[in-house]
Each structure stands twice: as structure tokens, then as C-alpha cells.
Write a structure and sequence with these properties.
By secondary structure, this protein is of the alpha+beta class. It is built from 3 helices and 5 strands, in the order αααβββββ.
């Protein structure tokens, strides 16, 4: 005797559609697999006269299989890999850049303009307006050396 007047197959179909809609609202690729397994279980329950225990077993097997197969395909191309060693180290990307001195630079300190910001620098010696090349970064202080004038 069933608790509900509805066939459990319809609950599988409705639940699967609800999970697919939830995947659209909160994408993460996991609800999509479980929703697909629920819909397939619902279609199987409508097509074949199977009881609720077999439906639950079929759903569990389908959910695991679809998540494993679909997850591999979905997540395999999800992240881009790069060979750039400076990707997560923006300060490292400054190495080799030519910048302009805004306060005289010597072994004790000075300041250089990098883009639209001013950074502390050591090295040189260089006077205001000269071009210097960034050769190292120590904390937030740039180590610079004189850049020969362009020809």
C-alpha cells in the first residue's frame, strides 16, 4: 500500500527536474548528475514495473556512475594550467621592468614610479628622472640598477 496516491516514478521525475533547476541557480556540476540520475530512474520506473526498493537501488547506482563519468569529463577541462611561474606572484612580474626614479636612489633607499604607483627602491645610484631596471624584489622594496640610455 502506497502512502501517496501518486506513482513514485513521478516523484523521481519531478525531483530530477527540481535538481536541474537548482543547478542553474547554484552551478557546481554536482546537482546536474544527481538530477539526471533521478530522471532516468523515473523513466525506468514508468517503463518497467519495478518496486520502490529497486528504484532506490537503481538511483544510487545511476547517481554514482553518472557523477563519476560526467564528473571526469566536466572537471577535466575546467581548470587552465599554465607554465608561467609568476602567475600568482605579481611582484615577481616586475623583474626586468624599466621604471623612472622619483626620489634619488642609492644603497640606502629612494623611490621609483611603477605604473601609477610609487615604490621604495635601493641600488642605483640614480637621480630623479633617470631610468632604472628592476633586478630583484626584497619585501616591498625594489632593487634597481642603472639602465643605459636608449640609443
Amino acid at each position: 500500500m502506497s502512502i501517496s496516491p501518486f506513482d513514485p516514478a513521478w516523484f523521481w521525475l519531478i525531483g530530477g527536474v527540481v535538481l536541474l533547476i537548482a543547478e542553474l541557480i547554484a552551478p557546481g556540476f554536482f546537482l546536474m548528475f544527481v538530477g539526471a540520475a533521478a530522471i532516468i530512474t523515473g523513466v525506468l520506473a514508468i517503463a518497467l514495473p519495478i518496486n520502490l526498493a529497486i528504484q532506490l537501488g537503481a538511483f544510487a547506482v545511476l547517481a554514482i556512475a553518472i557523477a563519476r563519468i560526467g564528473g571526469r569529463k566536466a572537471y577535466a577541462s575546467r581548470y587552465d594550467h599554465t607554465s608561467d611561474p609568476s602567475l600568482n606572484n605579481p611582484v615577481h612580474r616586475l623583474l626586468g621592468r624599466v621604471v623612472i626614479v622619483v626620489e634619488p636612489v642609492d644603497g640606502n633607499g629612494g623611490r621609483v614610479r611603477v605604473g601609477d604607483s610609487v615604490w621604495p627602491a635601493r641600488g642605483g645610484p640614480a637621480s630623479v628622472g633617470e631610468r632604472v631596471r628592476i633586478v630583484d624584489v626584497e619585501g616591498n622594496c625594489l632593487k634597481v640598477e642603472a639602465e643605459p640610455p636608449p640609443r
